Amino acid sequence: MAELLRSRLGGNGRNDDDGATLALVIEGGGMRGMLSATMASVLADHGLVDAVDLVVGTSAGAANATAVAAGTIGAFSESYATVFASPEYIGAGRMLRRKSMVDTRGITTRSSELFEWSLALRDGAPRLAAVATDVVTAKSVPLTDFTDATDLADSVIASSQLPLAGGLPVTVRGRRWLDGGLIEAVPVASAAALGATHAIVLVTRPFGTAPSYGPADRVIERYLRRVNPELGDLYRSRPERYRSTVAEMRAGSYAGVHTLTFAPGADDPIPGRTETHVDLLRAAREAAVATATRGLAEADLV
User: Fold this and answer.
1) Do the beta carbons of residue 39 and residue 291 sit within 8 Å?
2) CA angle 166-201-46, nearest 5°?
3) Considering the domain boundaries, does residue 88 fall inside one?
4) Where is this motif: DGA/G (predicted)?
5) Across the strands, what pairs with 131?
6) 179 in catalytic set
7) Which domain holds residue 88?
8) Is residue 46 part of a domain?
9) 178-213 pLDDT, tens per residue?
10) Residue 132 belongs to a domain with what CATH number?
11) What is the dihedral sign for C-alpha 206, 212, 216, 221?
């Protein structure tokens, strides 16, 4: 994996005729997505994004992937703290105004405007995919080959639509969707389905950890069972599925794809899904810069 990256860095990037398809795979997690956005920004600063053929993200990771493809990931990674850590977009106070706790559409629309997401559709950009959960089939689906900027933004919304906190499932391309992280938080399998042979993987939880399962999750599980019983089962098994799949990615291979995986350190500050404390977000961003830089050095890529 590292040999392929070094070869592309020293050659023609994604235009190298080496027979490989290299993906950048990005986990989200709401405001925790700032960590993967920051790591992606560090990779971009070192030229690695120019080596990537395909960028695949789930939930906030889909927004990050779009900013990577647009070439604006540096500024976008800062916006988690400077723009979106605001009661305008996130917080229980929105529910008092009869709104969803998270304004998925508002965040996406503002991101598209501020960070020129339409550039992700330009010639020469890496192929882009946003992974969402089809509520009828209970399958994760990589949405790609966007017709225009509206289709792209709608697909990111589909990938990011949290159950309950974000509102009802959204309809895009004639199908109903919820957050891709319900089934595939780290979408290496979707990257494989799109032809990836190798992947740089950015996860937003320290190695060995997994999503918790508490009282709020039981409420979400009951809701999902009403939507589709299979979704409830998948949500309940999410912590163990996450732990085992990330362990395989860390070991170097998952779903037939060779992987190099970056994760926050065990002692790094980790934002919550709806984090709005700006100081914590800034500290987490600084730690993510250090983590990504250290990971590149350990792989002999800087």
Assistant:
1) yes
2) 110
3) yes
4) 179-181
5) 58, 142
6) yes
7) 1-9+21-295
8) yes
9) 999 999 999 999 999 999 999 999 999 999 999 999
10) 3.40.1090
11) positive
